[in-house]
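Write out the 3D structure for:
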Amino acid sequence: MTPPAAGDVALACARILVDELVRGGVRHACLTPGSRSTPLALACERNPDLTAHVHLDERASSYFALGIAKATDTPALALCTSGTAAANHFPAVVEASQACVPLIVLTADRPPELRDTGANQTIDQRRLFGGYVRWFTETAVPEQTSGAALYWHEIGARAIASALGMPPGPVHLNTPFREPLVPTGAIVDLDNGKSPEKRGAPVESVAAPLERSDDSTVSALAGLIDRAQSGVVIAGSLPRPALEVFDFCAALQWPLLAEPASGLRIPERALAAGQALIADDSFRGAHRPDLVLQLGATPTTRAAQALAREAGTLVVVESNRRHADPDRRAALTIKGDFTGLVRSLIPRITPRAATRWSQSWSTADHAARSAIDDLLDSWNEPFEGRIARDVAAALPHGATLFAGSSMPVRDLDHYMAPREGIRVLGNRGASGIDGSVSTALGIAQSGAPTFALIGDLALLHDASGLLWSARRAGNAVLVVVDNNGGGIFSLLPQADFEHEEFEKLFATPHNLDIEALARVAGAGYVGVKAAADLRPAIDRAAAATGVQIVHVRVDRGRAVTLRRAVAETVAGALSPR
């Protein structure tokens, strides 16, 4: 009997691998065209339970997969051919690793005998992503041998287990294929009908992390809390909202500083102007807590980092087993789930009545929020702070907001009023602006109404993602704050350089036509010139179909002056009458 062609064997092995990934929860595969990846691409396209998203370039494709994984909390697949195509996945892999997002990267490769021979499109792809992946393996070259089916099932199951482990993160499978790559259609039975796929269950499963906290750890934390006369809870980015924190704060009468990505910035529960309070040096100096309990990722803003650093005692709780203490100030670090910790902790702490400490935070919070809103409402020129506030307020219930790195995520933290019914995500693992558009469009695949608040440089950095996906990626509204360059540098010491040097090296004005880019990409476009016109523009964009760009130009120089005016207004509101 003539043995099956290499392309048929490769497809049979690839189908088992992909089937096992699907059995483990993967529902989306993001891929780019390539010859060497033919067996994997066909396996994805022909799996009825998998949606294949085809992209032009690998960086955009991998960020699109990252967005899907962030939004769904399930692994997504990023697939490409060999050579530099694989290297273009690196930024998304780094973000997935730092942010603990399950991502499975499948890179096709030339077979081992072609390495170091000058063969075209052949690089060393083994351990290409270094320590940023939770697990790497190079698979065997597909062959019709005894045990082949079980082998490919096991590779897929282990990839899922590693991506969903603790902490979750990216996995890299490098898969070499020999030519011919195109199957003839011949049927290949790798194990004479004994494949594990007939059992209907994964080869390997992953148990959820245990929620029960160690008794000695709970006792140690309870002791620290009892000895603290004053405390603050800072909630950074969390994989899911730890709603038990509300009962904890209520019992102790401690204020809650909740970043938007924590999911805890809820009315009457979290401070409404917490970042404005602690950004005021006088207020923060007079309100140094005995203890700060920091939940989740390291705080985004320098003011929150300073509050944690200056506290008498810092306790860090990180559910993803990552370390979130850049200043090395933590007296106690707990790597576990906050829900289980609080359930064990609350019976051991003594509830407290309202104190001067809690009342002073509450009074100042109300005064600062009112002062900020009154000032912003008095300005009709576009300003980043008001844009962030109004975008967050305008979103419909159930929406997801992607917050771009650099200034958008900071402006949301500073200006967003507490509200319920939205989810805020961002690429804050490595905090890069790359892949912002593609991540947002990947998030849109979750089915939730999707919005993004990003800067002009973030849009341009991922212009290829917009050009390819605007007509293909479904519905999303991208609010682009355009200050013609890198506005964040105007707030950093680099702004003191001579003007021409600063503009050339840091501000980098682009002077590009965002409307023309939107038109070429096939995205809807609306320009906003007055602050009062933003919310109506968002509503119109949300009612339309496809990708919509709401473009707001701001004056980079004026923005510095307006931020200073906000700070002065807050200081005035907090000053004793």
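The longest helix spans residues 356-378.
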